[in-house]
Amino acid sequence: MADQSDTLRAIPAIDVLLQRCGAALPNASRPLLLEAIREETTRFRAAVRAGSPVDATWFDAPRFVDAIRAALERVQRSRHEGVLNATGILLHTGLGRAPLCDEARAAVDGVARYAIVEVDPDSGERDEREIRVARLLCDLTGAEAATVVNNNAGATLLALSALAAGREVIVSRGQLVEIGGGFRMPDVMASSGAIMREVGTTNRTHRNDYVSALGPATAMLLKVHPSNFRMIGFTTAPTLSDLVELGRAHGVTVGYDLGSGLLRPVDVSPLEDEPDVRSAVETGADLIWFSGDKLLCGPQAGILVGRKDAVAKARRHPLFRALRPGKLDLAALEATLLVYRAHPDGVPPLPLFSALSTPQAELVAAARELAARIERASGARAVVRETVGFLGSGSAPAREFSGVAVALTHPDLVPDVVAARLRAGRPRVYARIEAGEVLLELRSIFPDQREVLATAVVAALQGPAGVP
User: Fold this and answer.
1) Which helix (H) or strand (E) holds 146?
2) Is pLDDT of 465 > 50?
3) What is the pLDDT of residues 88-135, one digit of tens each?
């Protein structure tokens, strides 16, 4: 501890470093130079506290100026840049969830300047911006109508505000979910103006619980798919079909928050028994809403499908304009849906499904090649390990799939520092740390990225300009 304190105290003052680097890099702007110096000193302190061997005299060496030059390049990089996802989490919220297919990426590029958004391409008259996407959604799901907002939280708020404000929504206690960022169903219910009526218990809710709660104030029977957790054991809940039958008998709207949004059944592990939109529409539910950037494999969006009158009410609500998506999301969503339409049977060739379908043997071979290259070109030890993965982003919780990782250890660098170096590279590589090793998961790396990953990892381990 004393040695650490001495090393930390030996770091020169920022003003001293600023003057030294300013003389060596006269064309650098002072604010950017200051940011770069602070970044490097922060990295140095983190390395010291993590126990990595460092030398405070590094600040006096020419390599420090080289490190600042590299840091200047980093601080001017766009924050929203592409990265290599070696975490093994295929729907990583922090890294943008579902990767877009090539068609969607091309569509985004195609509308980046002027594009058709709210105009009919033939007449030139104003039109609904999501009309083509809505038609595709109806074709693919069998719904009478559809619309799109900016995310599923917005879809939930819009559905409840438009169809149940000032009246009661009956929902099982076992489905009062909380998703990422502290977004809770009871809170959004209150924000929408709907009155939540809880029924049943945490683990068991019966049809009669809904029947007993029905009354003149009831606006909706709500089912929420617990897409980010799983209850097992002594549990029960009415099916969506049960609620639809009950809703029709009493003239009450039935809403379904499907969450992760698998569009149709796919024979891909671990999604074989995941509830899907098309099957939900077939039950006759009035309104179903779900995410676009999870199991649908598209961009961030909240999608609502169902009966014409329910969708029309949502579109007429004042919140609809506030929640509408932009041209980039609509273009990417349309392109993704066109892939589904072009492949009506089997598994559509979308990146998430392709990653899940990659044979384990192929991943093992790629991992062995990567490990051998890393060991040849750096001082790190690289071992191939078979792992267990999860989708992430509240999709298919507790459902595992096999994975393969290259596990890194370095004689001179602790795992936190190795991971930090990987994140600081170009391109940035995001890995995970487990049991003292940095794991590079191959299932979340696309085949055309494997060579790029190898180059980036070797560069990071050889010692980029930065904290030694």
Assistant:
1) strand 145-149
2) no
3) 999 999 999 999 999 999 999 999 999 999 998 889 899 889 999 999
Question: Would strands 145-149 and 195-199 be described as parallel, antiparallel, or unpaired?
Answer: unpaired
Q: What residue segments make up the domains of the chain, in order of their start?
A: 2-71, 83-96+354-462, 102-348
The H or E element containing residue 407 is strand 401-409
CB 375 within 8 A of CB 381: yes
Check if the beta carbon of residue 164 is closer than 8 Å to that of residue 252.
no
Max CA-CA distance within the chain?
Answer: 81
Dihedral angle over CA of 185, 98, 260, 274, nearest 10? -150
Query: Contact at 8 Å (CB) between 259 and 292?
Result: no
How high is the pLDDT of residue 179?
66
Q: Which amino acid is at 119?
A: V
Question: What is the distance between the alpha carbons of residues 154 and 39, in angstroms, rounded to a whole number?
Answer: 36
Both structure tokens of 2: 């004393």
Q: Helices marked H in 76-144 — which ranges?
A: 102-110, 131-141
Contacts of 108 (CB under 8 A, 6+ apart): 100, 328, 331, 332
**Which secondary structure element, helix H or strand E, spans residue 65, and what is its range?**
helix 62-75
| Higher pLDDT, residue 424 or 308 | 308
Q: Which pTM does this prediction carry?
A: 0.86
What confidence tens digit (pLDDT) does each residue in 69-84 have? Answer: 888 877 777 778 899 9
pLDDT above 80: residue 233:
no
Angle at the Cα of 140 from the Cα atoms of 137 and 143, rounded to 5 degrees: 65
Task: Give the DSSP per-residue string, 280-334.
Answer: HHHTT-SEEEEESSSTT-SSS-EEEEE-HHHHHHHHHSTHHHHH---HHHHHHHH
Q: Which tens digits make up the pLDDT trace of 322-361? A: 999 999 999 999 999 999 999 999 899 999 999 999 999 9
Q: Indicate the fold that domain 83-96+354-462 takes in CATH.
A: Aspartate Aminotransferase, domain 1 (3.90.1150)
| Topology (CATH) of 102-348 | Aspartate Aminotransferase; domain 2 (3.40.640)
Using alpha carbons, select from 40, 106, 31, 109 the residue that is nearest to residue 69.
40
